[in-house]
Design a protein that fits this description.
By secondary structure, this protein is of the alpha+beta class. It is 47% helix and 11% strand.
């Protein structure tokens, strides 16, 4: 110790730097640490570093706490001794609550040598009782014993306790003292009735148990994955081209959770359970399964075909194959040929059979008919270095597709023979007027849309939106929910910009899809496209009117604008009728509302096609505002039964009456017009 003076600490012998020390010979140090230095037999000389001084301060604080506890203990003992029962017992008598003396009965000693229960002191902590767990076989049982009471929840967990495990056999028993802290905590959790997650959580704190758990989980995953590579299992494998065509992320995720639940649970914990993470989850598991067995390549084939159609070259596909995301370039090329053969078979089943059936049976609506869709495909190639011979190239094709209708005449359940389809020009004009039944159906649909708008914006009706139907039901709902059969049929090397090219396109489409016998058209087919394509096709038909047969006059095509172009035309008509700059001072007009809410992206009928979405959204907002304003006008403030569907439909009908959409008056007026047209036609 004498060597640890000067610039060294007398306790740890570390060199003291600067003023980070305390002199033990000072009066203050002797008053604070004198007793402690005598207990450790250390001379009161030299210096101590700040770390050792902090330890001495902690020892001194412990002494103060012990003194306080001793004082509190003595005060508590004096209080208990002053109680009547303790005073009477100190005098040698046993006093009952009523004050009468009771003769003390001698107690027999316990055979085990333990103190009888009646002689145990009042403040003695009870021992943990022994628990026996009998196995189902009856051969052995388990007994867990805690040598002290510190294994219960009532005492701090930082205190040490010993756990004794006893295994009871039929004739003998085996005991073991558990000393590992993780094992002790796990057994304590079992004794306290905790769940298996809590027990395993305590065991996982030990490295050996953690590694053992990982090995057990790995074995389970290997057993699950090894079953998928068997020949009897067809999941995650490409058995036919239909598996590629019917691939869905939801089905793959569900199959993964069913076939490999352990692996799926681990990946889900890492990625998450959000809907947008479903594709990432399927890709992560698919790459692992493909690395395990290359026969599990359904996902890799789908991704490979998608990337190949997007223009990824051979080198890129090979890199993605090395990463396990796609199959090899050779496999993609072979599968692409198989898909082309499958497409030819589908075309033969849909188009060729339709044409042959029409040629044999004539125009028959009992079978599914087809529609043709087409649009131009233009590509311009600009050279990097333009010369006289190397100029800009403009390539033009025309892509045709065929869609099969899902609803046939037999699905309508109409009795009697199938009526013949008359020519459009031969249908009387009164047939185009809606009947009373048609008007009721349309007004019923109007009421549905009005009710949806009210439940969207009016706070009183918002709680009913979950109980109201999401869509209008109709008899063919199951048919329309099915996936449509759409086939890529041909890429014609002609341009629709010229009349001669459009005539060649119509001739190819008519020869492929329209049944013709001896130059006569048996059944016409709808030819859909954009507005410009329909105009050019109609002009091509007019240019062929001087030919002798219907086939040469291209009468097999019925022109119709498709999808978005129909909405273009309808929206253009609305803006041409109701959007006028002269109505800027008329409150409630479309032009006035446009200026009121500053919808600068709405410019009128001239830009409806170029800015379709803003014009459509503005029209929807104006219509909804009209409906809500009419609802607030007709709905009474103190009316009851607001929270039911019948009241919403009643208000919806009143709103429709405000816009002169009553069922009775309109249906009668249309019926009268129809009757008058019938009389004129017959006359």
């Amino acid at each position: 110790m004498a060597a640890a003076i000067g610039n060294k600490c007398v306790f740890c012998f570390q060199v003291i730097k600067g003023k980070n020390y305390r002199n033990l010979t000072s009066n203050e140090s002797l008053n604070d640490f004198g007793i402690i230095l005598k207990q450790i037999n250390l001379e009161e000389t030299g210096n101590a570093c700040n770390v050792c001084v902090n330890k001495l301060n902690r020892l001194r604080s412990f002494d103060k706490k012990i003194e306080c506890l001793e004082i509190e203990k003595s005060e508590l003992l004096q209080t208990i001794k002053s109680l009547p029962g303790a005073v009477a017992k100190s005098k040698g008598g046993n006093v009952t609550p009523h004050g009468s003396k009771k003769v003390k009965r001698a107690l027999e000693s316990s055979p085990s040598g333990l103190t009888p229960k009646s002689k145990r002191t009042l403040f003695r902590t009870p021992r943990k009782p022994t628990v026996f767990a009998t196995s189902t076989t009856g051969e052995k049982s388990l007994k867990v014993d805690a040598s002290t009471s510190t294994c219960t929840n009532t005492l701090p967990t930082r205190r040490k306790f010993d756990v004794k495990v006893t295994v009871m056999y039929n004739s003998t028993e085996r005991c073991k003292i558990i000393t590992d802290s993780a094992e002790q905590t796990a057994i304590k959790a079992m004794m306290n009735g905790k769940g298996p997650e809590t027990v395993l959580k305590q065991l996982s704190k030990c490295s050996k148990y953690r590694s053992a758990m990982a090995k057990c989980v790995s074995k389970d995953i290997i057993q699950e994955v090894s079953k998928l590579s068997k020949r009897s299992e067809s999941d995650f494998k490409v058995n036919s081209e239909n598996d590629l065509m019917n691939f869905k992320w939801e089905d793959q995720a569900k199959m993964i959770r069913t076939k490999v639940p352990t692996l799926a649970a681990i990946i889900s914990c890492v990625i998450g359970e959000k809907q947008k993470s479903m594709a990432r989850f399927v890709v992560a598991v698919g790459v692992m399964l493909y690395a395990r067995c290359q026969l599990l390549n359904l996902l890799q084939f789908v991704l490979g075909l998608v990337l190949d159609s997007c223009g990824l070259n051979k080198e890129g596909l090979n890199i993605m194959h090395d990463l396990g995301l796609v199959v090899s370039y050779t496999s993609v090329h072979k599968k692409r040929k198989d898909l082309v053969k499958k497409q030819k078979v589908n075309i033969d089943q849909v188009i060729t059979r339709f044409v042959e059936r029409g040629q044999l049976n004539g125009s028959d609506n009992r079978h599914k008919t087809i529609e043709v869709l087409g649009d131009n495909l233009d590509i311009t190639i600009a050279p990097t270095h333009m010369t006289k011979d190397n100029q800009r190239k403009s390539l033009h094709w025309f892509l045709t597709m065929v869609k099969q209708r899902r609803v046939t005449y037999e699905d309508l359940h109409i009795e009697g023979p199938v009526p013949e389809q008359p020519c459009v020009t031969m249908i009387p004009s009164y047939k185009w007027l809606p009947s009373e039944e048609n008007m009721k159906s349309v007004l019923h649909n109007f009421k549905f849309h009005v009710a949806c708008v009210l439940m969207k914006y009016v706070d009183v009706f918002k709680p009913l939106i979950d109980s109201y139907p999401e869509y209008i039901s109709h008899p063919f709902l199951e048919f329309t929910k099915q996936k449509s059969v759409i086939l890529n049929t041909n890429l014609i090397d002609e341009s629709e910009n010229s009349t001669q090219g459009m005539i060649k396109i119509l001739q190819d489409v008519q020869d492929m899809t329209v049944p013709v016998v001896d130059g006569n058209i048996i059944q016409r087919v709808v030819f859909g496209g954009d507005v410009l394509t329909n105009e050019r096709a109609f002009s091509a038909q007019q240019a062929m009117q001087n030919n002798s047969t219907d086939r040469d006059r291209l009468f097999g095509m019925i022109h119709r604008p498709e999808g978005l172009h129909q909405q273009f035309n309808f929206l253009l008509c609305i803006y041409q009728l109701f959007y006028k700059a002269s109505s800027s001072m008329d409150t409630g007009s479309m032009y006035q509302l446009r200026n009121l809410i500053n919808r600068r992206d709405v410019t009128g009928p001239d830009d409806v096609v170029q800015k379709f979405r803003p014009h459509q959204q503005f029209l929807e907002d104006v219509t909804d505002s009209y409906i809500v304003a009419a609802c607030l006008d007709v709905m009474e403030e103190g009316c009851s039964n607001k929270n039911n569907i019948e009241f919403v439909e009643k208000i919806s009908q009143k709103v429709m009456d405000c816009f002169n959409l009553g069922v009775t008056e309109n249906s009668k007026s249309h019926e009268n017009v129809q009757n008058s047209k019938v009389k004129e036609y017959k006359a």
